[in-house]
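(Structure overview)
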Amino acid sequence: MRNAPEVKLGIVAVSRDCFPMTLSERRRKTVVAAIGQKNIKITEIPTIVENEKDAMKALTELNAAGCNALLVYLGNFGPEGPETLLAQKFNGPVMFAAAAEETGDDLMNSRGDAYCGMLNASYNLGLRGINAYIPEYPVGTAEEVANMVADFMPVAKVRIGLSKLKIFAFGPRPHDFLACNAPISPLFKLGVEVQENSELDLFAAYNARKDDPRVEKVAAEMAAELGQGNKHPGVLNRLAQFEITLLDWAEENLGASEYFVFANKCWPAFQTQFGMVPCYVNSRLTARGIPVSCETDIYGALSEYILYLVTEDAPTLLDINNTVPQDMYNANKSKVGKYQPNDLFMGFHCGNTPIKHLKEDAEMKHQLIMKRALEPDGEPDITRGTLEGTIKADKITLFRLQSTADCVLRSYIAQGETLDIDHKSFGGIGIIAVDEMARFYRHVLIAKRYPHHAGLGFGHVGKALYSAMKMLGVCDVAYNQPASLPYCGENPF
């Protein structure tokens, strides 16, 4: 299954009645051709909007074509009322862009004034309370507008995906991890559904699948994926039974939603009752585009899903965990490059990172911390199930969308990289470098009271994430500011 929407983009050109409609029509066709050169599918709506009746006709054509995202294109000045009415009525993300003048040889007859029209369009979008996507500089040639559309596509995918997403949570959220506990009211305002369940519900569903014939097949798939890293084959059937349970639960409870993620409590009673650590299952489902967050972290699961939509790659969820010792930094200066010691930290979780993002050292192991508490004197049994290994060196983006205690959504974004350095520790772990991390840690993560979990996407996708947050109406989007730009409240002395 594909746990993400396909963006079906339509384009509607608009024309102010005192300008030649043919100008907008010709420019629309040129833009559509340029967009096609980028291998982006787009439906060209024939109706050009001059008035409200045109807007309703274009809306009908968009719906008939199955469009779920819209580019309103100002081929000339455009009628601000009808074009923003179309955006208001359309059920999906909307982008506005305008045509630049093409040549100085024919400004008497072919001047479109769309530069001016974008101002009125923006003003009217504000009057209607519409969060449309407006590029950083929304006026351009056909090729430039095509580039803007390419930037819009992942933003549109986030908006569409969240409107049809359900988060399955199995809790309650752990008392010792109140950082993972945040109000869920803002999620419904985003269009996200939440189904909170008891661990007993999950346990009953798990036990009902004890003799399910699918267990052996899934366990064999796990063994093949792990290969030489399959250090605890005896736990695979339990893990396979749990994976089947989660997928069956989603299928039976998806309801009106189309996409889903999980936020599951994973310790300490989980081990004594289910008889394993679920981390490897979390990694496998996340690799398939179904993020599973640890410790019933609902906003962590949401953040992972947004990263999946933007990167089109499996993300992970890590603790912003520990500092890098000075001697380790000194020993790896050739690999550290430009980064200072406090630009580095270790990102860790027990074993939920998809195997594709781990080096060849990936292995099925037991969870060391849990074994100390639950099986201190014997061989590991109920604490088996983690996928341990070193996160590969790669470009990464740290991201989290979170609700405050008073139900205000805020977010952070920081681009960086994972370094090819031996961490000399355990778990699914990597050494992460972010410019000005120490200041970001103090004046964003601590000052704004973010929890310890960070979504980690593979690739630099800050631009798309920032635009997506703005489209969702998130006003506070923090980032790792350069040294020349102080944070609010940062001591200047």
Remarks:
- The longest strand covers residues 409-419.
- The chain is about 40% helix and 20% strand.
